[in-house]
Every structure is written in C-alpha cells, then in structure tokens.
Amino acid sequence: MFCGRYEEFVGTEKALFQTKHGNPQHFLIHGERGIGKSSLLFSLDLVARNEVPSFENEKFNFLTLTIELEPTTTYMDLIQKIGAELRRVVARRQPAMETAKATWDFLRRWEVMGVKYSGSEKELKPHELLDELTFTIDQTLSRFGPEIDGILILIDEADKPGLAANLGQFVKLFTERLTKRGCNRVCLGLAGLSTVLQHMRQSHESSLRIFQIFTLGPLATSERLEVIDKGLAEAKTKNGFDVTISDEAKNLISELSEGYPHFLQQFAHCAFEVDRDNAIDIDDVNQGAIQEGQGAIEQLGLKYFHELYFDQIASDEYRGVLRVMSEQFDGWVTKASIRHATELKESTINNAITALKKRHIIVPKPGVAGVYKLPTKSFAVWIRAFSKAHEETQSAKQNNTPGVSRT
Question: What is residue 401's predicted lDDT score, i.e. its pLDDT?
Fold first, then answer.
C-alpha cells in the first residue's frame, strides 16, 4: 500500500523494462530509517515476478534474488550469498534440476556455506569467485533462454557492512565482467541508509556512476492522509464494518509521523488498536502513541533509536542536549544556542558534546567549530514525539487526568 512514490516506481520499473530488452540498468535507493526502502524493494520484487501489475501494465518474468547484508558481511560473503540464493531460486523454479545434472551442474557447485568447484574442496580467491558467479549467472540465463526476462538482484541493508564488503568494488567489477561475457539481462538494485553512498565511493570512486539513484524523502501531507484513508478502506474490506476517523485525528497522525511511512503506519495502527467505538479521535491517537509497552512511540524507539537515545547515554542532561537539537530537526545547531536553551554548565555541555560526537550520535559541521546536528531527521522526529508524550503524560499524572490532549 503506497502513496507518493510514483517517480521511484516508474524509474525502477523502467530499469526492469530496459534490462528485459538487453539494455541493463541498475538503481540505488537510499534514505533514512523508516522511509520505506525495504518496502519499495519488496514491491518491485512482486512486479518483477508478475505477481502484481506494473504502472505501465508491462508484464515481467524475472528470476529475483533478494539478499540482506549484515555488519559482518565480507566481499567473499557477498558473492557467496548471491550465488547460493541463485541456486535456491532456480531450484524452486525447476524442481527437477537436481536430476538434470548435465544441464544444471554449474549451479550445483554453489553451496549455502561456500563454493566447491568441480567437486574439490579448494577455496577460491576473490577474483576467481567473482568470475565463477558471473559464469553461473550467464549460464543460467542461457539455459532458461526466452523463458525468463532476466535476473534481478536486490541487495537490502547495503549500508550495514561499511567498508568490509567492498560493495563499490564489487558492483563495478561484477557489472564489467557481465558486460565482457555479453550477459546483458541482469539488473542490480541496492537499498540502504544514505551512508551507503560514502561507503561505495570509498570502495571504488566510480561505482555510483553505474546506478540511477533515488533519494526517498518524507511523504507530503496529502499523501499521509491518503495512506490513512487507504488503510481504513482495507480494514473495512477485511473486517466487514466501518471505522471512521476525525479530521483532527488524521492531522495529528500526519504531524506526529512527519511523513515517515513507518512512523505513519505505527501511529495509525496504534490508534486503531486502542479505539473501542469504531470512531478514531484525538484521544485514541494520543493513547495509542503513549500506551506503555505497545505504544507507537515506544515501539518506534525500540525498533530504531533505543540504542542511540538510551543505551549509549546514561545522563538525562545529555539527552537534554539532543532534545534541544531536535527542535531544528536535522539542521545545524550552535553550541551557544544549546547553552541558552538548556541552561547547563559549560563543563556539562562540553562533556555532553564530546561524548555524543565520540558515539556518532551527533555530527560536527566540517570546518566550523561549535556547530552540530543530529545524524537524521527521523531521529529528531522521534525525539520530539517522545519528549512531547513524556511531558504530557507527566502533566496528566500531576493533574490526575485519564488522558492527554493535543497542544
């Protein structure tokens, strides 16, 4: 269920269309946590396998390989992951593959934990393993022939390994070797946090030239409201009864989410869960946001920001610095403005900034002393929502009121 991603859908589907016709194009999707990168890859996977229609009603029939990278993924691991996934995908599509040894033996060499070449236990070197992968892909396309449109390789969490996977070098060498083999029906799609761009440049300075790059940003207000309406329409179809929502409640969900799709989904879901009269109002949104354990703010914190805001910070004074900085979202903030807003001692502010920089929780402005920002806007959005909910909850407790109200 998507809204506001038209350019990204059309652009990635064009990459499939071009690849299908022998002009391979590759793409990279980047953005902050909760912005919808993995969901976009998942949807494209369904389009590529013709399980859902494309925007242009083009029918595709790709073999799709989907892998996720981990912080420990190395260059060799990356190649092995793709080879092993290719073997599994072909095996699912061709159940008799195991008995057709003469036809598919080149795929049998790929095992889950590594590669055995020609039945030997010899471990291949990185360049040999890469050659083996491109050979395997080329042979797979030759065996299937016109039965498939090509191979789509989707690599999610591409930012996680940092420099360890040499991702930039891999995509550069991988695509060049495919070109040399005349293998021109392979599309490579990556998704990750925006740090993946820097990692790839450091790995190979020209690696990004291979891709069409899509930067996912927050949804516009109208798109956020459309998401809520679509969700309730789907709920009515499945549940058989109407759940209405007031305009004020919709607007509050929109404001709390700041346009981040996962945030929007979480706030809307929690409001829907606490509603008891099939009419979602502001009280439902507030209660769903701050509910202990299952509330939207706590859930988002556990999923994305708990380590940054709690695990790595023992002092609430340090968190106070982050709260002040969040007022500017991911904009630059001076040390003087932090001092003025927090009224903390100079030594405390200095210690907080030193600790937060060391743990990469705040980012110093290059070449400018005493200016900092939060690493992502989504982190700021969550801090603001968390702080507001905490303040209102404390106020409600002091006044002995059952709920909180919008300010």
Answer: 53
191: left (phi over 0), alpha (psi -120 to 50) or beta: beta
Q: How far apart are CA 233 and CA 242, in angstroms?
A: 8
Residues 6+ apart with CB under 8 A from 335: 349, 353, 370, 371, 372
Task: Indicate if the alpha-carbon torsion angle 397, 402, 406, 407 is positive or negative.
Answer: negative
In contact, 207 and 28? CB cutoff 8 Å: no
Is 68 buried (19+), middle (13-18) or exposed (0-12) by CB count in 10 A? Answer: middle
Q: Give me 255's structure tokens.
A: 């404001």
Beta bridge partners of 333: 372
User: Across 171-265, where does the E strand assignment appear?
Assistant: 186-192, 211-215, 244-245
Calculate the alpha carbon distances from 158 to 18, 80, 215, 217 in Å: 24, 15, 14, 18
The dihedral over CA atoms of 205, 372, 28, 50, expressed in degrees to the nearest 10, equals 170
Q: 110 by DSSP, 3-state: which?
A: strand
pLDDT < 70 stretches in the chain: 95-104, 111-123, 392-397, 400-407
Q: Which two tokens stand for residue 120?
A: 């030997």
Of the chain, the end-to-end C-alpha distance in Å amounts to 31
The length of the chain is 407
Average pLDDT of every residue of the chain: 89
- CA-CA distances (angstroms) from residue 47 to 55, 76, 98, 327? 9, 30, 28, 40
pLDDT tens for residues 108-122? Answer: 777 554 555 544 555
Q: Which of 173, 260, 168, 248 is nearest to 223 (CA)?
A: 260
Tell me the residue ranges of DSSP E strands in 128-232: 150-156, 186-192, 211-215
Q: Give the domains, in start order, of the chain with CATH numbers.
A: 6-215 (3.40.50.300), 221-291 (1.10.8.60), 300-385 (1.10.10.10)
Residue 156 CA to residue 159 CA, distance in Å, equals 8
CB atoms within 10 A of CB 14: 17
> Under a CB-based contact definition with an 8 Å cutoff, are residues 175 and 153 in contact?
no
